[in-house]
Amino acid sequence: MVRVPENERWEIVELYFKGRSQRKIAEATGRTLKTVNRIVRAFKSCRRMKDAPRKPRSQVTTEQEDVWIVAAAAVKPGLSAQQIKNTLDLRASVTTVKRRLREAGLKSRIAAQKPLLRAQNKEKRLQFSRQHAQRSTEEWKQQLKMATTTYIHSRSALSTKH
Question: What's the chain's average pLDDT?
Fold first, then answer.
């Protein structure tokens, strides 16, 4: 529906109170009879020139569901919005769940992926620590210096263009 500018609404009301018929006003302004009638009725009943105030769209989730969404994220921070939606059996979209979490001040984060240590990894680490337990601090510093130098040289070789 095309909005009628306020100045044109005033013109329609003015013509009406000058005694013109609504049909003549519609012809003169290029608006439909229904539009002219609606504007005149709104002015006569409420002295209103602007569109009537409308109710905001109702929320998909209730306040209780909003609390549950935030609680689920607080209890298990690793849950995704999709998992929260499925766990709580919400009819709201995943986007709505994300919006409710943002409104509650919770930001989305991706948990850091830690490498899982298998039994053989733990065993190798234990062997390494037993073999090198007698090393002095100076030996470790020397080892670290060699490893750093090797790393720097290998990185600079990679960045050189051929």
Answer: 87
